[in-house]
Amino acid sequence: MSTKEQITRKDEPKIGNKTKISACDLTKANTAEILQKMEFQVPVLLQGYTDLFTKYLHSFNITLGACRTSEKQFFDKFGIDHTIMEEIAEYWNFVKNLTIIQIESHSKFIQDYIEFRISTMDSFDKSLTSAFDYYAKALSEFNKK
User: Fold this and answer.
1) Cα–Cα distance measured from residue 65 to residue 67, given in angstroms and rounded to the nearest whole number
2) Are 3 and 29 in contact (CB under 8 A)?
3) Which partner from 41, 76, 98, 116 sits 20 to 30 angstroms from 126, CA to CA?
4) Which pLDDT value is given to residue 34?
5) Minimal CA–CA distance to 29: which of 2, 5, 9, 3?
6) Torsion of CA 106, 108, 114, 119, to 10 degrees
């Protein structure tokens, strides 16, 4: 549907055969179309990130799987005690847990940020509605005189 079709209504005043175009309707229609296009891109972006992280995981599994054989030969060749790996494992568990906490904190921040923006838009809508109501009342009083 074209923008002109979206903004044409039966109750709009007409000039000859043409419908008067409202700035508000133009802005509304174009903004809605842009926001809908952005909204439709979300699944594409999410699928892209899912595919990307799946590829990361696959690559790490292959690389680190092959690393195990080389590691065993390395430790055996230099006579390194394998118990040192317990301390390294403890360190990596700490780093892993810290990273998971940061990911969860970031997700919570994004969730709170979105809720804040939605709440802000709700407040803006209410304020704008009140302002337009006041404006309409003031115009009606002006027109009475």
Assistant:
1) 5
2) yes
3) 41
4) 94
5) 3
6) -140
The terminus-to-terminus CA distance of the chain in angstroms comes to 43
Asked if residue 110 lies in contact with residue 118, where contact means CB atoms within 8 angstroms, the answer is no
**In Å, what is the CA distance from 119 to each residue of 54, 116, 124?**
35, 5, 9
**DSSP code, position 4:** H
Q: What is the DSSP letter of 99?
A: H
Do residues 50 and 117 both lie within one domain? Answer: no
- Please calculate the CA angle 121-112-51 and round it to the nearest 5 degrees: 105
Phi, psi of 81 (to 5 degrees): -70, 125
Using CA atoms, how far apart are residues 118 and 61, in angstroms rounded to an integer? 40
Please count the structural domains in the chain. 2
Distance CA 88, CA 79 (A): 17
User: What are the tokens at 1?
Assistant: 């549907």
Mean pLDDT by 10 residues, the chain (145 residues): 49 58 86 92 92 92 82 80 86 96 96 96 95 88 75
